[in-house]
Amino acid sequence: MFYIKQFFSIFRDNLLKGTFFFLISISFVLISGNWGLIKEKIFELYPDYAKGPSFFALISSDQDYLNIQRKLVTLPGISSVMILEKDAVKEQTKKLVDNFQLKDEDLGFLNFIALEVIFDKNITVRGQELIRNYLIKLAGENNVTLGKINFPPERDGIKSLLDFINIGGEWAVALIFGCMWFFALFILKKEVKKSAYLIEQFQRKNFVEIKILISGTIIYYLISTGLIFLSGSPEWISVFLIGFFFLISLIINGGKHSWGK
Amino acid sequence: MLQNHLNKTHDQTIFSLEDVSVRYGDIFALDGINLNIYQGEILFITGASGAGKTSLLKLLAGSISPTKGRVLLPNSFLKNKKFFSVQVFQDLRLMDNQTGEQNLFQSFDRKIYDSKSSFVSEMKELCRAFGIIDRIHLKVIDANGGLKQKIAMVRALLSRPDCLIADEPTCSLDYDNNRKVFDILLLYNLKKKLTVIWSSHNKEIVRKFSGRIIHLDNGKLVYTGHACFI
């Protein structure tokens, strides 16, 4: 309790440095402990990112299109197969052919089902061809019309950023926040050292600096762990690793005290 | 003979320096010092500026290590007792943005005081003795040099040390105030067996007080004896 009191007394006397250390400590644990959720939210903003090349297929409605969809989905290289709303497709097509002043009975050819087949992101051209051929084989050559392959729009800047977030996001966050936390600790430590020095000089206590810093950091760690727990999707391994990182950093930093002049 | 008699009254060695030298680059701050300091002793270290007084005090406080020789600190002699030394430095090391009273509370150790009230009553008693009771609410930054030095002394004594190591802490005080400080220290020495190691460049002041004097010149110990023999 003595050391917690000391920590918050230093916080009170150095509000700016104390607040910076508080914010960085809490953010570090919160962001790393919830990284999966944060990543998911980021990718929700860019739904096209996860989408690979795709094509549309028109299949005669007398075919068992549900069975075709089921079989396609199980293939490697397929991300998803969606059945488009029959009426919506019909309406769109009708709009297009209206200009030709055709009667309803002339639109008998609109009696089909539309599928959108979406490939995995990294599928090869050969893989795409095999899947298309398989679809033709499943539905019968005369019962299916395949559209051309559409590629998702390229957004170089954002795409490479999203790639980076996807592959090394956790490490980048850990590195950035780790450095910021070290910096926050460094600027607060000077004040802690001064208090610790005086306490060790005039009271029969040892290792005061490290005890003060560990007490304060544990409080912040517990607050952020509690918040992560409330968020519902904690990544406890990350939270545990950060706790370990805090402890080791504080032990390494807790050297000999000086008056700090 | 008198010197031997004086030493006999303090037979427990607490510090021992054996052929100790401290060198900063090519300069010898201390050169071949042999010295024993006894429990309950009052020892004055005199010498001109740069004679090596501060280096000697730092060695005794354990802040620096000797370049040559051996320094034995109290824990080498007193195996079963925890010996507590407190230092008062030339720069006093007070928290400027705090009041004198807040600085004094840095010595409030629950291990040695039963309650906060017992600490406060001892603090008030000492402040009264030092004549600063009406000024301890001032912020240190607003206090004059003499008040700061007295606050530093009271803070040191409030920690109930076994040994006080002081590096010219009363240089801003006049003779009467110095006398007052030494009277209090003498009282602590007699009642609580406080060991006092005090450095000063002013021989005229220390010779008026009871205790052993060692005199340093260019890092060498050139004189050791009782103050009254100077």
Structure described in brief:
The complex is a heterodimer of chains A (261) and B (230). Chain A is an alpha+beta fold.
Give structural attributes.
heterodimer, A: 261 residues, alpha+beta, 2 domains, 9 helices, 9% strand, B: 230 residues, 33% helix, disordered N terminus
Strand order of the largest sheet of chain B: 5-6-7-3-8-9
Helical/strand content category of chain B = alpha/beta
Counted beta strands of chain B: 9
| Unreliable residue runs of chain B | 1-8
Mean of residue pLDDT of chain B? 84
Strand content of chain A: 5-15%
Number of continuous helical runs of chain B = 8
**Which residue ranges of chain A are poorly predicted, with pLDDT under 50 across at least 5 consecutive positions?**
none
Question: How is the largest sheet of chain A built, in terms of strand order?
Answer: 2-3-1-4
Give the count of structural domains of chain A.
2
Percent helix range of chain B: 25-40%
Outline of chain A, from the CA principal axes?
rod-shaped
The geometry of chain B reads as globular
Taking the alpha carbons of the first and last residues of chain B, their distance comes to 15 Å
Give me the oligomer status.
heterodimer
Give the number of DSSP strands of chain A: 4
How big is the Rg of chain A?
A: 31 Å
Mean pLDDT of chain A: 81
Give the number of helices of chain A: 9
Q: Report the sheet-strand fraction of chain B.
A: 25-35%
Structural class of chain A comes to alpha+beta
